[in-house]
Write a structure and sequence with these properties.
single chain, about 190 residues, mainly alpha, Dehydroquinate synthase-like, alpha domain, 9 helices
Length: about 190
């Protein structure tokens, strides 16, 4: 899902094709993730996850990923946290950081991700609901939700922030500029 979200909000190369791919990827992934986790034998849900992941990959091939990935990479490098989990651990906190610059885009994605659970409101309300959803999703599918729960020691956060800043090829795509202090604050929020 992170691939699709970051493609949809990519600052430099967002385009109608990447948007189409990202929206359809999110529809498939959000609509099937929990069922695929609960019932791994549900072939239809797993096929939808496979297609959603493929479409998300095509989306970010056209509109590159950004700060979520920049902050996730050092987590994988130092602590061997799997790619999807490292992204999930920082996603809600990066969404919160970006909300002022990306509220319209987040608001457009909220109905796709939340479906019938979406509460009526304005785009800012929808953006907030999207952030809340991704703040709760990991726990619902049995994943750790905090960096500390994934074995990241607090004393490493400053080093991780410094290393995340080396990912400028990703950070330039973020809808909001990210400083080292911002990266540290995001890691602290995720801790």
């Amino acid at each position: 899902m992170v691939h699709a979200i970051e493609a949809y909000t990519s600052a430099l190369k967002k385009n109608p094709l990447s948007d189409l791919l990202a929206r359809e990827a999110l529809r498939l992934l959000a609509g099937n993730l929990e069922e695929a986790v609960r019932n791994g034998g549900n072939r239809e849900a797993r096929q939808a996850m496979l297609l959603g992941a493929c479409l998300a990959g095509q989306a970010f091939a056209n509109a590159p990923v950004a700060a979520v990935h920049a902050l996730a990479y050092p987590l994988g490098g130092h602590f061997h946290i799997p790619h999807g989990l490292s992204n999930a651990l920082v996603l809600p906190h990066v969404l919160r950081f970006n909300v002022d610059a990306a509220a319209t885009h987040y608001g457009e994605l909220a109905p796709i991700v939340l479906g019938a659970r979406l509460r009526q409101g304005d785009p800012a309300t929808y953006a907030e609901q999207l952030i809340e959803e991704f703040g709760q999703l990991s726990a619902r599918v049995g994943l750790p939700t905090r960096l500390r729960d994934a074995g990241v020691p607090e004393h490493m956060l400053a080093q991780l922030a410094k290393e995340a800043m080396l990912q400028q090829r990703l950070l330039v795509n973020n809808p909001r500029e990210v400083s080292e202090a911002d990266a540290l604050a995001i890691y602290q929020a995720a801790y």
